[in-house]
Write a structure and sequence with these properties.
Elements (H helix, E strand, L loop, with lengths): L11 H15 L15
Length: 41
């Protein structure tokens, strides 16, 4: 991992949307797992 940050023209939300769109257009099928944690109060 680099200690230098390279500024990109996209913010995090735009970059995530671009990656999701690329994935959906590139692969005919894929499996994704989402892990959610519950907090007990």
């Amino acid at each position: 991992m680099s200690i230098y940050k390279i500024p990109l023209p996209l913010n995090i939300l735009e970059a995530a949307r671009e990656r999701i769109t690329w994935t959906l257009n590139t692969y005919p099928a894929f499996v994704s797992h989402f892990l959610a944690a519950k907090t007990l109060v």
